[in-house]
Amino acid sequence: MKTDLVHAPSPELPRADSIDGEQPDTPKVGRWYYVKEKGGPSLACVTQLGSNYIELTHIVGESSERIHEDEFWSRCEFVTDPEALLRGNAERCRRELDGLMEEVKLLTAKLGVAPSPELGSGEAGAMALTLASNTPAAEYKTALVKAKDETLPALFEAIKTKSEEYAHWLGAQVIPMKAEARKLKPAIQRVEDRIFSVELYAGLCEEVQLIKDGQPAALTEPVHLFQRRLYMDEECLANYDTGGMEFKDIRAFDRWLCRKDNLDRVLPFPRTVVAMRVRRHDKEREVQSLSDFIRFLDLKQFDKLTFLYIRNGAQVYRLSTKIDFGEKLFPDADHPTLAPGEGKLYAKGSGDDFTVIGENEYRALVEADEAKERENKRRIKEEAKKPKAERQWVSSFSYFDRQARDYVPFTRASVEYDDIARRIARQMEQHNRVVLVLQGLLDRSPALHPHPPWRLYDGDGFAQALRLHRDSDRVLVAGDKPDFEAYRVRVNASIAVGSVTIGQEVAWERFEAKKENARRDSDHRWSRVEYRPGRFRPSGDPGPGRFARIARLDRKGRAHYRWTKERSKGDGPPVGRTYGCKTERLLNVDGYQAGDYKLFFADPRTRQEYLRWAPLLLAAEEYKAGRHGETAPLMDKPKPAPKPQSDGWSEYARRKVLQALLGKAVRLVRSITTKGGTKYVKGSLWRVTDLSRGEFTIAGIDKDGELEERSIRCVSRRDFEVVPEIADDPKYVHKPTKRVVVRDEEDGDDE
Asked: Which residue has the higher pLDDT, 395 or 203?
């Protein structure tokens, strides 16, 4: 007796393509019928026979439709001689096309227009447009205009329509051939499934590696198979502060798993099999180049690989495979696909992509739709009672808003019955793949040795060898899911000046990234670089620190920090820096109690969301354990550097005076000789075109102010005088740029 993880009665097989003793009009692949439609009968060919439907493909557009066997003879009429009908209609279309082409030739000949080679003989190809000697010019012109605007366009449109019809009739003869080829696909699929089963059993698509050696389990110890797929990053929380672990960290996870406490928690029985994947969610990675993009695509694929971790006593093996076993290695006992029956299942989708739900789930969707409809009617009545000026528009709850509208019952009344049955069978085959893998390991691999000669396809052997754990104690948790944001609010309630917090460094780096991106967007040198960082740390600026004390709390609920950085130019005391952000971005480390993270780690619902809470809570746990030392006390604001001795002009005023010279015409007050040896005499005319670091670039002009092909760089203000008689050139006049102010509206970050 064959035993699988899931069982279900096989769906009724589609009917054969030929039936002994069949009548001439019995539906069969390749036979033709007239199908009653609203616009009249349509000729269609039978292309597939299902267990309860006949699929027909129409000539026009080769569109297909399925007709239930109970409705077939009320809608369809058998065509006795389809070959003659198809040939006759194709011949008719050809003759009508020839007639239309002849009309075009006659009309153009009548008007004296030379026929093209496509319309007739090429002998007259050189004829020019002429006027008949006995036709008045005005009347001839009117005939030409009518032919251009009305007659010829109508004839060409008729030719186009008739050509399409001709193509339909010619293509109809191929429809039965396509249907015959389509019948081979199930056989090909069965061969592929058999090949895949052989690969599973023989281990051709897997690799087994011993990661911990030791004594194996007892001979008769059964294999405990856990249903739920685990995720490595959620189990060990590795690299929580950098977005979680990835495929390259797999060996570090192996070492973590082989520690006794972790091994007994994840693989609790002497013989245990658990499916794992590196990550549940994609890791955020910043792409700076095309090579990064390609490399990250590969890493993303590696993160989705499936592993089976096998414990055999003190031995631990890792089986790598490209097979995706799904979220669950086997379904729940009350899974709808275990007991398909009339009216018990509902499905939505098409082809091979169906979602199947049970009776209870469907009823829940219907009740939810009804509740939404009642609420919608209540809101409409409530708005109707308000004064017209105060009413808000409420759209009506329509049929298309119902979640249950796309689901159809899995019964023989549905023409999708066979497709749904195939989908259910496919799901069960996927769940049963793990049995083939395990049987292959028992027969050819030392991973589970020693063991009795178990045969998993035998009922008794299956019962002796396997213990299925449906993980109900690990997934279903009583009560509501722990709310991290509510926990943060409670811990941050005691926040005060001097409190140690975490989270400000990430908020500051994101704020600095927005400023840096705004700078790059306004700089033409970055115009061809698409990369913009999500987090940025200015050179030489240490930032507020991962752990920092609050220097000030303002009335808006923001926490402010201060620190110092070295001067980028010259000597002098450090530069003071400040930054403020909302407390919603922080966690009060002083209010955190050791072990608080377990509240979220122990619940599977929040463990899979660890990237929200682990960077804060686990860092706070490490801080409480003394791994990060003591945060430095608040420092006084640094004294400002002494101002240089003033010469009467401020730097700002000097810069404004120099910028005002841009675009003006000037005259040299002394001769200038360039490094190349070119000499420009005193009194020559020039135009100031650029200012850089207090020095000008000037271009030569004539007495009318027109530019000439000569220029000098690094010219001092003392080398020329302004010529007011020549007008300024607005192209070079300084235009003050508005400073870009960056504010983080989402986080409320400001500086």
From this structure: 395
172 and 261 in a single domain? The answer is no
Strand 695-701 versus strand 707-715 pairing type = antiparallel
Other CB atoms within a 10 A radius of the CB of residue 191 amount to: 10
Tokens of 669: 């007050």
SS3 162: helix
State the Cα–Cα distance between residues 483 and 493, nearest whole angstrom. Answer: 16
Range of the domain at 169: 85-123+131-178
329 Cβ contact list (under 8 Å, min separation 6): 5, 225, 226, 227, 228, 229, 275, 431, 434
Q: Token pair for residue 182?
A: 């389509």
The answer to whether residues 434 and 287 belong to one domain is yes
Q: Report the distance separating Cα 515 and Cα 375, nearest Å.
A: 46
Nearest one of 690, 628, 686 to 659, comparing CA atoms? 690
Residue 601 CA to residue 603 CA, distance in Å, equals: 6
Tell me the pTM.
Answer: 0.53
**Cα–Cα distance list, 155 to 159, 160, 161, 586 (Å):** 6, 9, 10, 76
547 φ, ψ (degrees, to nearest 5): -115, 130
Co-location of 103 and 159 in the same domain? yes
Task: Determine if residue 407 is left, alpha or beta; phi over 0 gives left, psi from -120 to 50 gives alpha, anything else beta.
Answer: beta
Distance CA 450, CA 462 (A): 17
| pLDDT at 255 (0 to 100) | 87
Residue 607 predicted with pLDDT over 90: no
Axis crossing angle, helix 175-182 with helix 184-202, rounded to the nearest 10: 20
pLDDT of residue 504: 92
Q: What residues does 553 pair with on adjacent strands?
A: 559
Give the residue carrying structure tokens 């020019």: 128
DSSP state, 228?
Answer: B
Q: CA-CA distances (angstroms) from residue 452 to 87, 223, 443?
A: 70, 12, 11
Any domain includes 679? yes
Distance between CA atoms of residues 54 and 15, nearest Å:
10
Chain centroid offset of residue 191 CA: 34
Domain count for the chain: 4
Is 412 in contact with 52 (CB distance < 8 Å)? yes
Cα–Cα dist 680/274, whole Å = 86
Structure tokens at 97: 């096309």
Q: For residue 22, name the pLDDT band (cuts at 50, 70, 90).
A: low
Q: Establish if 389 belongs to a structural domain.
A: no
Q: Is residue 717 part of a domain?
A: yes
Residue count of the chain: 751
Q: Is residue 499 part of a domain?
A: yes
Distance of CA 351 to the CA centre of its chain: 23
Alpha-helical (H) ranges within 267-344 are 290-303
Q: pLDDT digit string (tens) for 228-245?
A: 888 887 777 755 544 444
* DSSP collapsed to 3 states, 292-306: HHHHHHHHHHHHCCE
Question: According to the model, what pLDDT value does residue 478 have?
Answer: 53
Confidence of residue 723 (pLDDT cuts 50, 70, 90): very high
pLDDT-based confidence at residue 126 (cuts at 50, 70, 90): very low
List strand residue ranges (DSSP E) for 161-246, in order: 206-212, 223-226, 230-231
Could you tell me the pLDDT band of residue 198, with boundaries at 50, 70 and 90? Answer: low
Distance CA 505, CA 559 (A): 12
pLDDT band at residue 751 using 50, 70 and 90 as cut-offs: very low
For residue 129, give both structure tokens. 């447009």
Say what the pLDDT of residue 501 is: 93
Q: Residue 123 — very low, low, confident or very high, per pLDDT cuts 50/70/90?
A: very low
The number of beta carbons lying within 10 Å of the beta carbon of residue 488 is 21
Distance of CA 332 to the CA centre of its chain: 30
444 and 581, same domain (yes or no): no
Cα angle vertex 630, ends 627, 631, to 5°? 120
* Same domain (yes/no): 157, 208: no
Q: 604 and 688 in one domain?
A: no
- Look at residue 750 in the predicted model and tell me its pLDDT: 44
